Amino acid sequence: MMQTTRRQFALSTAALAVAACLPQVAAAQTVDDLKKKGKLVVGMLVDFPPFGILNNANQPDGYDADVAKLLGQELGVAVEIVPVTGPNRIPFLLTNKVDALVASLAITPERAKQVLFSKPYSAASIVLFGDTKVKATEPADMKALRIGVARASTQDIAVTKAAPEGTQIRRFDDDASAMQALLSGQVDAIGCSVQVAAEIAKRAPAGRLEPKFQLLQQNMAVALRPGQDQLAEAINTAIEKLVANGELNKLYQKWIGTELPKLG
User: Fold this and answer.
1) At what angle do helices 247-255 and 63-75 cross, to 10 degrees?
2) Which residues, at least 6 apart from 59, have a Cβ–Cβ distance to it below 8 Å?
3) What is d(CA 159, CA 139) in angstroms, rounded to the nearest whole number?
4) Who's near 38: CB < 8 A, 6+ residues apart?
5) Helices marked H in 153-209 — which ranges?
6) Residues in Cβ contact with 4 at an 8 Å cutoff, skipping those fewer than 6 apart
7) Is the dihedral of CA 254, 247, 32, 232 positive or negative?
8) How far apart, in whole angstroms, are the C-alpha atoms of residue 130 and residue 112?
9) Which residues contact 164 (CB under 8 A, 6 or more apart)?
10) In this model, does residue 13 exceed pLDDT 70?
């Protein structure tokens, strides 16, 4: 666990260093700041289908992209989406590369020490997903497996917490890499969202892969920098409205295929 923590710290530090070399954008703290700048710059994953993808025109798309655009409409500003990765999304926010994250970022106590979370706008279940020949019905069974996971993600947190000491956890740069490792037999199972599991199942021979058990159910929220309280209030008001009028549910049904879970 100590080695894992050190690796994650080193990765976060490296991501911050890379982000510091990129061009700065104006640090919008309020809705008025956004309107003066003319846009809301949103960081979003594009490797987390169906929440974040690149469409046929190589543009960010998916549930998170549509949510970001709806929030822009509610705030009265245009939206520019900047692709981010799991490890660099928080550094991009904290170093002012983006104004906000709509990046499938689950609410956790550790993250809440770094960022200001809005009310949740989505939810996802994290499951252990693997070959049907693999026996795994509870966390204790993970010790005998090679388990892949996207580095520094909610899945990583869930797998690390559930796995017994000595479990082989192999960390990849993103969900796509973990997915490929599973399909090619480099790992026996991966920790992933139920949506990613469904996408993997489409690519594998019928009946080869299956969800084993649920690791975690978490809500996802817009992330802002500490001090963006006025912007957070405006976004919370927008999310409450979009939940109440059913617009978020429509998007969830469009992309996920089910009703929007109850968001607490």
Assistant:
1) 160
2) none
3) 9
4) 77, 78
5) 154-162, 175-183, 194-203
6) 160, 169
7) negative
8) 31
9) 139, 140, 142, 143
10) no
- Radius of gyration of the chain measured on its C-alpha atoms: 18
> Rounded to an integer, what distance in angstroms lies between the CA atom of residue 122 and that of residue 222?
10
Q: Kindly report, residue by residue over 58-103, the tens digit of the pLDDT.
A: 999 999 999 999 999 999 999 999 999 999 999 999 999 999 999 9
* pLDDT above 80 (res 15): no
Q: What is the pLDDT of residue 25?
A: 47
pLDDT at 259: 84
Confirm if 60 and 101 have CB atoms less than 8 A apart.
no
Give residues with Cβ within 8 angstroms of 6, minimum separation 6. Answer: none
Task: Go through 84-123 and write b for each residue having 16 or more CB atoms within 10 A of its CB, e for each that does not.
Answer: bbbbbbbbbbbbbbbbbbbbbbbbeeebeeebbbbbbbbb
| Cβ proximity of 170 and 148 under 8 Å | yes
Q: What is the pLDDT of residue 104?
A: 92
Mean pLDDT of 102-111: 94
What's the whole-model pTM score? Answer: 0.68
Burial class (CB in 10 A: 0-12, 13-18, 19+), 79: buried
Tokens of 171: 């960390």
Separation between Cα atoms, residue 139 and residue 81, nearest integer Å:
37
Nearest Cα residue to 116 out of 223, 240, 264: 223
